[in-house]
């Protein structure tokens, strides 16, 4: 009987090991799927390059920050004179419920008539229209900002 118990224990550990490896592969696949740059063109590419979002050239003044994708989709924030902190921290202006967002992820600030996006040293980065933000960058109206699985836009 002890040999049978030992053999069943070995098989049980082997099954658990296989389940662990499959779970790890699933997490890696999910991470790789969302690690790519956000796509706003329905997954199509033009001429082998990423399609650039078309934004009207008129001077539209943003007045609202809108969450277009993620767990807070549909949320709207009225823009004001102060900075907008984005992250998981409870004292952020826009508190994200996103495992891929840092507690202090990014900041939107108004300088003159434009808003600038700044990454605050986040782990997974902040993307403005598929380009990683490394320095304070002006944000045009309607261009998507991706923070983890959350996508936000400035709207007039």
Automatic annotation (TrEMBL):
Residues 84-133 form the FHA domain. It comes from the Bacteria. The keyword Magnesium does not apply. Keywords: Phosphoprotein. The keyword Heme does not apply. This is FHA domain containing protein. It comes from Nakamurella multipartita (strain ATCC 700099 / DSM 44233 / CIP 104796 / JCM 9543 / NBRC 105858 / Y-104).
